Amino acid sequence: MQRGGELYSGKAKSVYKTDNADQLILLFRDDTSAFDGEKIDQLDRKGMVNNKFNAFIMQLLEKNGIATHFESLISDNESLVKRLEMLPIECVVRNIAAGSICKRLGIEEGIDLKQPTFEFFLKNDPLHDPMINEYHIRSFGWASTEQCQQMTELTFKVNEILSNTFAQAGMTLVDFKLEFGMYQDKLLLGDEFTPDGCRIWDTATREKLDKDRFRRNLGDVVEAYEQVAERLGIELD
Ligand code: TMP
Ligand code: ASP
User: Fold this and answer.
1) 3-class DSSP state for residue 199?
2) Which CATH class is domain 3-82?
3) If you measure from the C-alpha of residue 235 to the centroid of ligand 2, how many angstroms do you get, rounded to a whole number?
4) How many whole angstroms from 1 Cα to the centroid of ligand 2?
């Protein structure tokens, strides 16, 4: 499959057309960004690690009944995906308090939630991805009631599947973000699932193994992603 023209370039991935109007190529670059693009850097091997990490997770989710855009790995840094009409919304599930919820609600990092919680954010960097609710989504037409229900249900289901997967490898899935889009009238999981868009802690030591290492200048960012991949049995080389 040949790469056609660039359709879109995000902070860490670029999206290209293919000769099939229903398929796109995702290129995972070595670029990394945090705080809505305020902090950026290039990390050797990150594109390859995230591409293979994402492929593993998407295939695992498919096996567990979650419909995704993922088609196949086509090179170290590229994957073939279905072309979705993306909804401008980010769906976050949290199992443990960390990140923005701690600031917003004055909660200490690391507290176990009594049950997983769910939040919608508007995908808008200049506005710093503000938190929104289902009424906002319906009032402004960003998605329908049915799409909101499906996104919520699917994100909780992904949480169950992946929390178990990480737990079996001695890791805790603290929180994560998903994005969805439409493909021929069906809602599919799109974008990516990598350590860039989730928090993963070593269960025993609570060591951070995700993008918080970059956000907080803890070092060994890609090394941590590789450790998670290795513990999940993902082949990188
Ligand atoms: P938060 O604590 O910053 O709200 O993020 C919660 C989780 O969702 C965290 O694992 C990071 C991920 N996330 C992104 O990857 N990109 C985003 O734009 C947002 C809002 C969250
Ligand atoms: N992914 C977003 C960014 O690059 C938010 C973050 O991870 O902090 O800026």
Assistant:
1) strand
2) alpha beta
3) 26
4) 30
